[in-house]
Amino acid sequence: MSAEPSRLTLTERSGLSRDPEAVREALYTHRIRLTGRLAELSPADWTAPTRCTEWTVHEVARHLVDVAEFHVACLTGRLAHSRFGRLREFDPTSTPGEWLRDSAGRSPEQTIDALVTLTEAEHDSLGRLIDASATVTSPLGGRWHWSVLALHILWDAWMHERDMSATLRAGRPQSAAIQRLVALYGLLVSASVAARSGEVPQVTVRLVGSPDDMYEISGPRGDVRVTAGATSSPHLSGRFEAVLESVAGRGPRLAEVVGVSNPAVEHLSRLTAIMK
User: Fold this and answer.
1) Is 41 found in the same domain as 23?
2) CB count, 10 Å around CB of 227?
3) Cβ(84)–Cβ(73) under 8 Å?
């Protein structure tokens, strides 16, 4: 019998414990939804500021195109021969800005067209990996299961959509499937960063308002795992969006969001330093 959705597990090495097709479809659904919202913007909207204080709405959208192109290059084994291959090791504080230079003259219409084209290429490329155990290079270094990288791309797009929310027209709420996958990955990447400089924090986190409420972080260093639907008492508790945004460098510090300061909170906050 297959695992219940409430006990879905994500690990660095093996990816999602069941139905990797869900990752492909969640990313595709999010891309199509966000592209539709971008198409509704006025010329003035494209120059509006965002939560990414150095980027306008158009620059955030161009970043999403860069990330989609990078993802397709990774999935097709062409990364070394792409424009991304000439840059040094990825640095979250500088590399995205370097990528943007290549699209400095692009119009909003060209940005949308590029994102539409890459969305289809990404969907096709992921389709060829559904039954594979292929690994790809992690943005943190080392190797990840392909579905974990795809979830990183989904998490990045989910976060940047929220960065533009003050300008984007109201849209439908995100599906429970997307929220579940974003929650799993957001905690996984936070724990993975913590593990690089110490042990994996073995904690249960309650994400209030998320589909599964409770998430358990465990596993050895090098193969962090996060399980949705944990049954043990939570060590930390906070609103779903607030926790994920905090560890990604948006909003209040994690200790403020969860109302407690302890070693687990300190460990899970280390991603913040990388993202800023």
Assistant:
1) yes
2) 24
3) yes
Please answer whether residues 215 and 205 qualify as being in contact, where contact means their C-beta atoms are separated by less than 8 angstroms.
yes
**Tens-place pLDDT, residues 198-250:** 778 899 999 999 999 999 999 888 889 999 998 889 999 999 999 999 999 99
214-218 and 225-228 as β-strands: parallel, antiparallel, unpaired?
antiparallel
List all residues 6 or more positions away from 53 whose beta carbon is below 8 Å from its beta carbon. none
Residue 56 lies in a domain: yes
90: confidence class by pLDDT, cuts 50, 70, 90: confident
Using alpha carbons, select from 162, 167, 145 the residue that is nearest to residue 240. 162
Q: Final residue of a domain: which of 137, 156, 172?
A: 172
Residue 196 has which token pair? 């690089």
pTM exceeds cut of 0.90: yes
Q: What percent of the chain has pLDDT over 70?
A: 95
Whole-angstrom Cα distance, residue 275 to residue 6? 30
Q: What share of the chain is helix, strand, coil (3-state, %, to 5)?
A: 55, 10, 35
Q: What is the pLDDT of residue 80?
A: 78
Task: Report if residue 11 sits inside a domain.
Answer: no
Which residues make Cβ contacts (< 8 Å) with residue 91, sequence separation at least 6? none
Contacts of 195-202 with CB under 8 Å at 24 or more apart are 195/221, 195/222, 195/224, 196/140, 196/141, 197/270, 198/267, 200/224, 201/263, 201/264, 201/267, 201/268
